[in-house]
Specification:
Elements (H helix, E strand, L loop, with lengths): L2 E3 L5 H13 L13 E2 L5 H8 L5 E6 L6 E9 L4 E9 L8 H15 L4 E7 L3 H9 L3 E8 L9 E2 L5 E8 L3
Parallel strand pairs: 5-6
Antiparallel strand pairs: 1-3, 2-8, 3-4, 4-5, 6-9, 7-9
The structure holds coenzyme A.
The site of coenzyme A has 20 residues, from helix 1, strand 5, helix 3 and helix 4.
């Protein structure tokens, strides 16, 4: 799937897509945070902060036929060639049809071509099926867990008090 780098003019649509993908579906499912966290996942202003000065790159996946936004992912270079991958989101209309898999393949290629040696992700601990999905993409748990940011209103309203972030990594070296 073709991935394009998002510009500021794209970010209202990206915020809408991310909020729909993470929390916009009515029933809890393995693909969403419904039942775990309420409220918006992000907003246009936060996304502008992310890409300001090139700190992060947001990649957009457009539907091959309609050219509408089908998904996105963010990449943030960190120390020692490790890049943080976050905000992977697929439009609810096309979830579970291979778009997420395809975005991950493209994002890995983008990061590798730009010099990344490994990717790091954080996944909410109780989303076991999503963790398994990343494991099928070649990620492995590092054994580290970070606290969920309960005191950050920017992440939404957590509905449970047992959330934490599990760290997984994937080497991009051949
Ligand atoms: C999670 C997400 C990125 C996955 O992308 P997607 O396009 O929906 O998923 P794909 O079509 O690429 O993959 C579907 C997978 O689900 C599996 N699957 C289908 N039904 C399933 C079910 N009921 N339970 C578990 N897995 C299921 C399929 O086997 C397939 O896995 P495989 O590729 O290893 O065989 C997407 O659903 C999404 O945007 N979710 C909301 C945002 C989010 O939670 N992002 C991740 C934050 S860390």
């Amino acid at each position: 799937m073709e991935l394009n780098i998002a510009e500021v003019k794209d970010l209202d649509k990206v915020a809408e897509l991310v909020n729909q993908a993470y929390r916009g579906i009515s029933a809890p499912d393995w693909t969403t945070e419904v039942g775990l966290i309420d409220g918006p996942r992000t907003n246009q202003h936060s996304l502008e902060d992310m890409i300001e000065n090139g700190a992060s790159i947001i990649l957009l996946a457009l539907d091959n036929v309609s050219r509408k936004l089908a998904g996105c992912v963010a990449l943030t270079p960190m120390d020692s060639g490790e890049w943080y991958l976050s905000m992977l989101a697929v439009s609810p209309h096309v979830q579970s049809s291979g778009v997420g898999r395809s975005i991950m393949t493209g994002a890995e290629k983008f990061a590798r071509d730009a010099g990344a040696r490994s990717l790091k992700i954080s996944v909410i601990n109780v989303r076991e099926k999503l963790i398994e999905w990343y494991e099928r993409r070649g990620f492995t748990k590092t054994g580290d867990t970070e606290p969920f940011p309960y005191d950050d209103p920017g992440v939404g309203v957590p509905l449970r008090d047992d959330l934490a972030l599990v760290t997984l990594t994937k080497s991009l070296m051949a």
